[in-house]
Automatic annotation (TrEMBL), chain A:
The lineage of its organism: Eukaryota, Viridiplantae, Streptophyta, Embryophyta, Tracheophyta. It is found in: Nucleus. This is Mediator of RNA polymerase II transcription subunit 20. Component of the Mediator complex. The keyword Heme does not apply.
UniProtKB/TrEMBL annotation, chain B:
It comes from Rhynchospora pubera. This is Mediator of RNA polymerase II transcription subunit. Keywords: Nucleus, Transcription, Transcription regulation. It holds the Pfam family Med27. Belongs to the Mediator complex subunit 27 family. Residues 159-187 are annotated as: Disordered. GO terms for cellular component: mediator complex. It is found in: Nucleus. It comes from the Eukaryota. GO terms for biological process: regulation of transcription by RNA polymerase II. Transmembrane segments: none annotated. PANTHER family: 34 KDA TRANSCRIPTIONAL CO-ACTIVATOR-RELATED (PTHR13130), MEDIATOR OF RNA POLYMERASE II TRANSCRIPTION SUBUNIT 27 (PTHR13130:SF4).
């Protein structure tokens, strides 16, 4: 798998996030020469909470209470679970969602959808998307995924991605968007992940990013 | 099939020559594809012979390959016809009056390409200097002399007996080990052996893993890379005997995979070079192939020029210089441009963000160790090298 970075948009203090910002971010991407639109993308995330079988007994302490399930746009046949407290990631076939529904040991509490536009720029792939809270389609945030196709090693691609991030930030600042994109920093070693990039890395990035998005949207409301 | 852009007599000679060079390149690529296809068919036959259970699968593969080969042959026929029409095979342009001093590249019946086919750039520049042309003429003619008149070489080089030079020594010591031979006055010009070159590169660049393969071995490995990328870096796979080595693979973990082909097999003459991403795999992975990624495409194009330069300026050490130069690319994604001091730069004409892909390859003096330490973006290169 090729290396990805994930950023979310942090609006300036006192401003609210609107769909206009999404359009502006896409315009920044399209303003670079050589960028071509490459279709749409869509991922989704479910926050599960454990359902205790017997209300009177205390829940066993070794089972996680919260679970995040992620379906990624580039892996339609798979479903990933992230247990943030235990720092575990599980990769399963997408049919595991039916199993979860039948078992009812964990119930989906709320859902977040990511959807937006995809761009190709030389050896880079950019995906800018809205982060929508499912029941009422409220806009919670804007995320951007950047992928560098030639490399799969996180270590070796670090400098390239950093420079790209700088170039992107400068472009966004010069177009006077009301806020900035913040990169999601994750210590992959804590999750037992190595230098070679995998879908598990993406799952961890999304898990961390969403937490930050929700925190910043709660602060601004 | 309608030949595109048929160069009529109305086109300027440089354009005709450029098109002819283009077609020759295409023909070379088709021939490489055909060779690979033949290898695969042979392999399918061998496999089905050893393992009768797999004979159905082998038969399928053979049929598929046969289709592909048929198409390649048809394409080759078309390209050949175009070349013939443009006078490449018969030297027709030579006799025309207004050829601007340029000649169409001439392909002799034995396959050698003669006269101004040595350097692509010349095809467009009618005003190339006499010194350049003389240098390139010398190189082309000495290549041909080596190929067709090996007995005229110096005794100690004795290229026609290449295949008997074995390492380590075998039961038939027809030739002595060159390094221990009694030195002549010209012993400093001795060609180093393949094993020695590879060993010294390994010590010079410990971050790069070097492996050698025979041609068929490499095609199998290229296919297997498409299916399953090895998770950890494989150990260096140096062939036991260096006679049949036709492909050298250099891998810098997480940075590049480079293929260098040797012609003839077992010699120390590099023939072609290509850069790929370490996560690429498939039958297009060979020294005349092209990566799907822009960064590696540009490095490969530049590497072609470097190879030509090494071959013309120091043919005996061309392989050593080339391998050292390739190893300097370990810092491809970390070393800033020596001119603008940034890593990524927007190339306006290509509309791409690229790291510095041009690493100058000029050699300073014969005995000074090159370190090829500088790197430039395409737009920052101060000279067209």
């Amino acid at each position: 798998m090729t290396v990805k970075w994930l950023m979310h948009f942090q609006p300036n203090q006192g401003t609210t996030l609107t769909s206009q910002v999404m359009a502006e971010a896409c315009a920044v991407a399209e303003s670079f020469p050589g960028v071509s639109r490459d279709g749409r993308w869509r991922s989704s995330m479910t926050f599960y909470r454990a359902v205790p079988r017997d209300q009177s007994l205390p829940a066993p302490s070794d089972l996680p209470r919260d679970l995040i399930g992620i379906s990624l746009h580039d892996l339609p046949n798979e479903y990933l679970f992230v247990m943030r407290s235990q720092r575990l990631i599980l990769r399963a076939h997408s049919s595991v969602q039916t199993v979860m529904d039948k078992l009812q040991s964990y119930k989906g509490r709320f859902f977040i959808n990511f959807e937006g536009l995809q761009y190709k720029w030389g050896d880079f792939k950019l995906r800018i998307g809205k982060c929508l809270y499912n029941p009422n389609e409220a806009l919670r945030g804007i995320v951007m995924e950047v992928e560098y196709l030639p490399l799969s090693s996180i270590d070796k691609s670090q400098r390239v991605m950093e420079e790209f991030y700088e170039i992107w930030r400068e472009a966004v600042a010069s177009k006077l968007l009301a806020g900035q994109f913040i990169n999601t920093e994750v210590n992959f070693v804590e999750y037992g992940l190595g230098d070679s990039y995998t879908p598990q890395h993406t799952a961890v990035l999304y898990g961390m990013c969403v937490v930050q998005v929700i925190a910043s949207s709660n602060k601004n409301q | 099939m309608e030949p595109q852009q048929q160069a009529g007599s109305g086109d300027a000679p440089p354009k005709q020559v450029a098109q002819a060079m283009d077609r020759l390149g295409r023909a070379a690529r088709l021939i490489a594809e055909i060779r690979l296809g033949a290898d695969r068919i042979l392999e399918a036959l061998l496999v089905s012979n050893e393992n009768p259970r797999l004979s159905e699968k082998a038969a399928e593969l053979t049929l598929g390959e046969e289709d592909a080969m048929r198409r390649h042959f048809l394409d080759l026929r078309t390209v050949g016809k175009q070349l013939e029409d443009s006078g490449v095979l018969s030297g027709a342009l030579r006799s025309r009056g207004n050829s601007w001093g340029l000649h169409m590249p001439l392909v002799c019946p034995d396959g050698a390409v003669v006269a101004y086919a040595w350097k692509r750039q010349l095809a467009g520049q009618a005003g190339a200097s006499a010194v350049d042309r003389a240098r390139l003429a010398l190189k082309a003619f000495s290549d041909q002399k080596r190929r067709f008149f090996p007995q005229l070489e110096d005794d100690q080089l004795n290229r026609s007996n290449n295949d008997t030079i074995k390492f380590p020594p075998t039961k038939r010591p027809r030739l002595l080990h060159r390094p221990t031979q009694s030195p002549n006055i010209d012993s400093t010009e001795q060609k180093p052996m393949l094993a020695d070159i590879l060993k010294s590169i390994q010590t010079e660049a410990p971050g790069v893993t070097i492996s050698t393969y025979q041609r068929l071995e490499w095609s199998k490995r290229a296919e297997s890379l498409a299916l399953d990328q090895p998770k950890e870096q494989i150990l260096s796979n140096l062939s036991g005997s260096f006679n049949e080595v036709a492909v050298i693979e250099l891998v810098a973990s997480g940075v590049f995979r480079v293929l260098v082909s040797l012609h003839p097999a077992g010699s120390t003459d590099p023939d072609a070079v290509a850069f790929f991403s370490p996560n690429e795999g498939g039958s297009y992975l060979h020294s005349r192939g092209m990566s799907v990624h822009h960064v590696f495409k540009h490095v490969t194009e530049y590497a072609d020029k470097a190879l030509q330069y090494f071959q013309s300026s120091d043919p005996n050490k061309a392989l050593s210089h080339l391998l050292s130069w390739i190893c300097s690319h370990q810092s491809l994604f970390t070393k800033n441009c020596s001119k603008c001091c940034k890593l990524l730069a927007m190339d306006k004409s290509l509309a791409l963000l690229l790291p510095p892909v041009h690493r100058p390859y000029l050699l300073n003096s014969k005995d000074h160790d090159q370190d090829f330490a500088t790197a430039y973006h395409i737009g920052c290169s101060s000279y067209d090298v």
